[in-house]
Write a structure and sequence with these properties.
- The protein is of the alpha/beta class and 251 residues long.
- It has a domain of 174 residues: 3-Layer(aba) Sandwich (Aspartate Aminotransferase, domain 2).
- The protein has nine helices and eleven strands.
- The longest helix is centred in the first third of the chain and has 14 residues.
- The protein is globular.
């Protein structure tokens, strides 16, 4: 018997996008007609929906997943002289974000059972300079967050979750992005929830951290041209929010 060879792409964005094309274009047309390109109401609508999806009260849309990690660490006042514990098998952006703040990355090995950070090695890596633990939920599998939370609480440390590969993943019914002080998501096109370009978000239960993240992403502004703190240009694009709002129904 003869079989024909068929190539199946690892990621088929064109086919995925074709199914939602008309709805996305309708949303984008409304943005173009209104001219609300920066932090338009679509961004707010997406933030509300994604916060609810992640089971937290606050979501702050940012420009990409790397910005989400960087701003999370900045919001927690982590900087030069501090140490952040993370895992060595993540994408470079995880360590880059730590380096951007001037802090030192402390790598620990993975658990071969799930390829996530080995919680049994974390405590040995803690020093007097350690400020945070940054677990990475890999391949849709959450890290052992209950144990990490216990370690962090015992040592007075913060937790920043790298959720770039875990949109919707759960531990005992609780969604990734809701365990740590701040969750960090990427909406790169190939992610579980992907935009038509770059995008990202932070999630948190803490209203003060949420407010600080909103300032950090937009030049430190509450009011245009009034800069309350040193901020960055890391806003989620309104047109990308149109894509994410459409895809939320299908995730």
């Amino acid at each position: 018997m003869q079989f024909n060879s068929v190539s199946i792409p690892l990621v088929d964005l064109a086919t995925q996008s074709r199914a939602i094309r008309d709805e996305v274009l309708t949303r984008m047309s409304a943005v173009i007609d209104a001219g609300r390109y920066i932090l338009g109401e679509e961004v707010e609508h997406f933030e509300t929906q994604f916060a609810e999806y992640c089971q937290v009260p606050h979501c702050i849309g940012v420009a990409n997943g790397t910005d989400a990690l960087h701003l999370a660490l900045r919001a927690l006042d982590i900087g030069k002289g501090d140490e952040v514990i993370t895992v060595g098998n993540s994408f470079a952006a995880t360590a880059f974000a730590i380096a951007y703040t001037g802090a030192t990355t402390v790598f620990v090995d993975i658990d071969p059972a799930d390829f996530n950070i080995d919680v049994n090695l974390v405590e040995d890596a803690i020093t007097e300079r350690t400020r945070a633990i940054l677990p990475v939920h890999l391949y849709g599998q959450p890290a052992r967050m209950m144990e990490l939370r216990e370690i962090a609480d015992r040592h007075g440390l913060r937790i920043v979750e790298d959720c770039a590969q875990s949109h919707g993943a759960e531990v005992n019914g609780q969604r990734c992005g809701s365990f740590g002080d701040i969750g960090c998501f990427s909406f790169y096109p190939g992610k579980n929830l992907g935009a038509f370009g770059d995008g990202g978000a932070n999630t948190t239960r803490d209203p003060k951290l949420a407010e600080k993240l909103r300032l950090l992403r937009n030049y430190g502004q509450r009011v245009k041209n009034q800069h309350d703190m040193l901020g960055y240009n890391c806003r989620l694009d309104t047109l990308q929010a149109c894509v994410l709002l459409t895809k939320m129904k299908h995730i």
